[in-house]
Design brief:
Elements: H1 5-33, H2 152-178, H3 183-206, H4 218-240, H5 247-268, H6 271-284, H7 293-308, H8 314-333, H9 340-367, H10 372-377, H11 379-383, H12 399-416, H13 422-427, H14 430-455, H15 460-481, H16 484-505, H17 513-519, H18 522-545, H19 550-580, H20 583-607, H21 616-638, H22 641-666
Helix pairs in contact: 2-3, 2-4, 2-6, 3-4, 4-5, 4-6, 5-6, 5-7, 6-7, 6-8, 7-8, 7-9, 8-9, 9-14, 12-14, 14-16, 15-16, 15-18, 16-18, 17-20, 18-19, 19-20, 20-21, 20-22, 21-22
Length: about 675
Amino acid sequence: MNPEQPDQVQRTLADLDARLGRIAGEVAEIRAGLSALDTPAAAPSPQGAGETAAAAPPREATPAAGPAPAQASGPWRPQAPVPPPHQGGPWRPGPSPMGAQPSQPGPRRGAPPGQPGPQPAQPGPWSPQPADRPWRPVPAQGRPARPSRINAAMVIAAIGGAIMLAGVAFLLVVAIQAGLFPPIARVIGAAVLAVILVGLGLRLQSRHEATEGRPVNPGALALVGTGLAAAMLDVIASSVLYQWIPGPAAYMFVGGLALVGMILAQRWRSAVLAGLVAAGTMALSPLISSGPELPIFFVIVGIATAVLAAELGLVVRLIWSVPPAFMLTGYLASSDTGPEGDQIALIVAALVFAVVTVAVAWYDSSRREPVAEYAALVVVPGAVPLLTFQVLTYLEPGWPVGVVLAAAYLGLAYVFGRPVGRAAVAAGDARRGAGLLLAAVTGCVGSVLLVAAWGSLDGQATTGLALTLTAIAYVLAAGRWARPWLEWVAGIVAGLALLVYMGVNQPQLALSERLAVREFTYVDVAASFALAVLAVVVTWWLGRRLPGASSRAVMVGAVVALAALSVMLVAAGVVLGDLAGDPRNGFLAAHLVVTVLWICCAAWLVLTDSPRVADARKLGFVLGALALAKLLFLDLATLPGLFRVLSFIVVGAVMLAVAVRYRSDTDPSGSGSPT
């Protein structure tokens, strides 16, 4: 036997061992890229291996001689994807798809002592990457990528596109003023230029090799955005200036072009493209048109941007929400002199825009990222045009419309702020917080609309009464649901109601007979009673909200409520006396009743022993002192003979009764006899 034959066999086996290791690594890489497929990928056969080396079939293991890796028999089963190698070092193959383990350098089993094992194979075209070529993971398909970062190239491209777009607008406007081209030439020229720009941009992007730092060609963004904005301006000019396209068709064309631009912006994840299409059209369209159709074009472009590009950042949200809102507000505020059809179109556009802002905000808060701060902000601009509905002649009286809109926003606030289920709480509180934030924004918007609706009522006194009733409702809701935004709104509306009551109803007129007889009406009676109820409700709310300060809240609330009831009695006396033909006697009788009411309330507070009313005796003494001051300084100078006598007798009798009862309660002997 040839002595060199064992060495030749060992070298052959070592070569086979190395090749099988490379095969295992190649299969592992293929499996990492095709882990979603149900069919296994067959490992490529080694080339130049000799007659003893054959490729293993995909579903059945072929035993290998010598040190070859063992293959698992049986049908193939999908396994978890092999993790990619570490970026900082050489790749080490994991388990093969057939269950075989790749060979490692070292002595082979069965080799003679001192015989070295097979050495690692050199990298080939399909071999794993060495240490000097780190592996870079491929981004997963279908994962929403972040919007591309704005760099210097994008800024330059955006500025260039804006300048070119301004040139297109000047072509459509200045050419008309100078008479350079006929109308058909202007429109066709702008359309051809728009098509060329969009085509060049798409072709440039198709040839662009996307990288992590530059996924989209900045020039492609500028060309496509400029071309689409130019096409929309061309459609607006064709409809407004030349009347070649009917208004509804022009709205559809502009909306379709805007949707195309937002689809590309969403696919390329480019806020620059979305802003160039939307902001470019909105900024330059006033050069072409200044009629009532202009805010409608703004709304159409804004809706298209909101539906498809709302998750491209805060700037895009501000672009599609703020300009249409203020454009609509300005045109609605000055639409009374225009045709009725224009007013209806603007009202419908404002309602549709408000609905879209709320819907997009809700969808962003529940489905999209970033968090709801961005989504909730668009609700406020969308509701600004609705404030003008109360002053429109076409909707006169406007307060019922305002009340309906306010009720809609407040209902949405209740829906958005409902407690979530246990499963949602267990999954996380992020969406609950988003819903509460959106509920707070919509609730505040509805409250502003409600206050604006009361401001359009006929008569300031009626407005004050409506505000007071609204404050009562808000305070009751704040005490029931304990929402921070609801408490803030309740406090603000309650303070506003008090200020309006003091300025409009003028309760100080109750001290003057001449002014009270001339000014007080039944509205003052209702407003004073409502303010007394509001004082009681606020006292209850503060007692629940601030238990430590409940005593002081009760004292202040009791004084305010009693003062409001006193004004109500004086106003009621004037009204009843006027019905009887003598308002002066009604005023005097009312003051007599007020004095008796004050002293009776003071007596009850001094003598009560209820633990529910803390510091009741102190409040009773204060109220009794006020009653005596009123008797000596007001009634003595105002009330005539019989009314003055009755006032002094009643007050004296009540004070004597209090003295007797108070002495009996505090006498240590308990005899009960006065001394």
